[in-house]
Amino acid sequence: MPVALEHLAHAPSSAPLIDAAGLCSFLDAVPDPRDRRGRRHPLSALLAAAAAAVLAGARSLAAIGEWITDAPRWAVGALGFAPDPLTGQVVVPHPATVRRLLARLDGDALDAAIGAFLSARTARTREPDTLRAIAVDGKTVRGSRTRTTVAVSLLSAMLAQRQIADKSNEIPCLPRASGNAPTNTTSRST
Question: Whole-angstrom Cα distance, residue 190 to residue 188?
Answer without folding.
Answer: 6
